[in-house]
Design a protein that fits this description.
Elements lengths: L1 H4 L1 H30 L1 H11 L4 E2 L2 E9 L2 H12 L4 H10 L7 E8 L4 H5 L5 E2 L3 E2 L5 E10 L2 E2 L6 H23 L6 H9 L1
Length: about 190
């Protein structure tokens, strides 16, 4: 009887119930569908894959040495034709503990301090002195132009955009099925208040 005796409480209960119904419908028609509809998601991605691009990146190997002398020695070995990854493996295979750290990847601007300090051209970069006294240099293989990310790499963004598209389609369907009609008489009474 409380909703009948207290109209404000009754409106609040109705709003809460309607909100729960809308939440359930959104989950069923939009959120869950976007995550579970793998075929629809793939089709949406294929249609919009140029919206999910990697920026221009540098294909490179960063060689980090604890000091200038080891950096010079490592640079000479690489200049003599030894691959940076093979060099790291051979140092470890000889049983010696190496302080050389080698990382290969595709690097975008503002992703790595060392990459941001070098010139983006193929070959070996100049030495870069680090704050901890170590020295880094980079073996640059080439520049990779912007390209679409794979669906697995952009999945969260694709799902969010697919949910937006599903919601728009659902709202369009509802508006066609249930057109909005404005009662001008009632509308005018609101202006008088």
């Amino acid at each position: 009887m409380l909703p009948v005796k207290n109209p404000d409480f009754g409106r609040l209960v109705k709003e809460f119930r309607d909100g729960n119904l809308l939440y359930e419908l959104m989950g069923e028609r939009v959120w869950n569908k976007a995550m579970q509809d793998t075929i629809g998601l793939q089709a949406f991605y294929d249609k919009n894959k140029n919206n999910y691009l990697w920026p221009q990146r540098l294909d490179a190997t960063i060689i980090n040495c604890p000091n200038e002398a080891l950096a010079k020695q490592t640079r000479e070995q690489i200049n003599a034709g030894e691959n940076a990854k093979a060099l790291e493996k051979s140092l470890k295979d000889k049983g010696g503990v190496t302080n050389i750290r080698i990382d290969s990847d595709l690097y975008a601007k503002d992703q790595n301090k060392v990459i941001d300090k070098i010139e983006w051209k193929a070959g070996l970069s100049e030495n870069v002195s680090n704050n901890d006294g170590s020295v880094s240099f980079v073996q640059v293989y080439g520049i990779v132009e912007p390209s679409p990310k794979k669906l697995s790499e952009a999945r969260g963004y694709v799902i969010a955009d697919y949910q937006t598209e599903l919601e728009k389609a659902w709202i369009t369907e509802l508006r066609e099925k249930y057109p909005v009609e404005i009662d001008n008489g009632v509308l005018k009474t609101l202006y008088k208040r």
